[in-house]
Structure formats: structure tokens, C-alpha cells
Design goal:
By secondary structure, this protein is an alpha+beta fold. It has two domains: 73 residues; 77 residues, Glutaredoxin (3-Layer(aba) Sandwich). It contains eight helices and four strands. It has a four-stranded mixed sheet with strand order 2-1-3-4, with helices on one face. A hairpin with a 2-residue loop joins strand 3 and strand 4. Helix 2 packs antiparallel against helix 3, helix 2 runs parallel beside helix 4 and helix 4 crosses helix 5. The radius of gyration is 18 Å and the shape is elongated. The chain binds FE2/S2 (inorganic) cluster (FES). The site of FE2/S2 (inorganic) cluster has 12 residues, from helix 6. Keywords: 2Fe-2S, Iron, Iron-sulfur, Metal-binding. It comes from Vallitalea longa. InterPro entries: NADP_DH_HndA-like, NuoE-like, NuoE_dom, NuoE_N, Thioredoxin-like_sf. Pfam families: 2Fe-2S_thioredx.
Length: 164
């Protein structure tokens, strides 16, 4: 766990990140379900899973690259492109959708100049949509990393983003 905490350091060099991923590959190599676990860890450390990291994992776990790439593309929480420092998720569950979730999404796309699944050029924000985040009574809701914003007014979005 200490290793993972250390891995969240933004100043870590590429070589250091790869060395830590290799350590985890060694540790998980012969364990059941190791691929998904190593991919999770690698994404946490590296930020995303480009093809060179997928290859490293495939070689380390002795699996074909096609299997690793297949898993990465199957699960939406794995990303093959760099993600922003902050991930904004707009809830499009029923309650939020009915109470204006789509307007919030439109407004965010306008403010940030990106579409769903994209990241701003300065690598600050990634925009995603999701289903119910458990705040239906106070819909519409969005989350930015671990913080949930409820009863969001599209006109207040700039104010919220300024905090980041
Ligand atoms: S539908 Fe959005 S929080 Fe439940």
C-alpha cells in the first residue's frame, strides 16, 4: 500500500513509474485474476494504459498482448489516452436526466471545449457521463474526482470549475 501512495506523486519520472509497475507485475505474476489487478495498479501509477504499458504487462504476466488489449478496451474504467487531473462525471441517471443533467453536460462541453470522453488540452479536466451516483433526491448531480455536487445549476458551473 505504501508503494501505491508513493505512486500518486505527480513528480515521479517515467522510469520510476515503470519500475514500480514492474515490481507489481512480479508480485502478482502467479496470482489468480492478476491481469485486472495489475492493469488497475498500472493505471493508478501511470495515469492511463498506453500500448507500451500494455506490452510490458503482457510480457510480464506471460499473456498475449491481444488479451491485455481486449481487457483494456472492454472495461470503460481503463483508458488508453492520458486523463485529466480532474475527472468530471455528469450523472445521466433517470432523476438527473429529468432534472436537467443533459443541460449540465451541454454547458460543460461548451465551457471546456471538449466532448464526452475527452480531456482538455492542458490535461486538467476529463469529461465523462455516468449513471446514478446516489444523489437522486438532490438531482441533478455531478462529481469531480471524489467530490459530489448536488442540485447543480448550469449557470454555476464556471464557479465550481474555478475551484480547480
Ligand atoms: S440519477 Fe443522478 S444521482 Fe441518481
Amino acid at each position: 500500500m505504501d508503494k501505491l501512495k508513493k505512486c500518486q506523486c505527480e513528480d515521479m519520472s517515467e522510469e520510476e513509474k515503470i519500475a514500480i509497475i514492474e515490481e507489481f507485475i512480479d508480485e502478482y505474476k502467479n496470482k489468480e485474476g492478476s491481469l485486472i489487478q495489475v492493469l488497475h495498479i498500472a493505471q493508478t501509477i501511470y495515469g492511463y494504459l498506453p500500448i507500451n504499458i500494455q506490452k510490458l504487462i503482457a510480457d510480464g504476466l506471460d499473456k498475449p498482448l491481444s488479451e491485455v488489449s481486449g481487457v483494456v478496451s472492454f472495461y470503460s474504467f481503463f483508458s488508453t489516452t492520458p486523463r485529466g487531473k480532474y475527472t468530471i462525471r455528469v450523472c445521466l441517471g433517470t432523476a438527473c436526466y429529468v432534472r436537467g443533467g443533459k443541460k449540465i453536460l451541454d454547458k460543460l462541453q461548451e465551457i471546456l471545449g471538449i466532448g464526452v470522453g475527452e480531456t482538455t488540452e492542458d490535461q486538467k479536466f476529463t469529461l465523462e457521463v455516468m449513471r446514478c451516483i446516489g444523489a437522486c433526491g438532490l438531482a441533478p448531480a455531478i462529481s469531480i474526482n471524489d467530490t459530489v455536487y448536488k442540485q447543480v445549476n448550469p449557470d454555476k458551473l464556471s464557479e465550481i470549475l474555478e475551484k480547480y
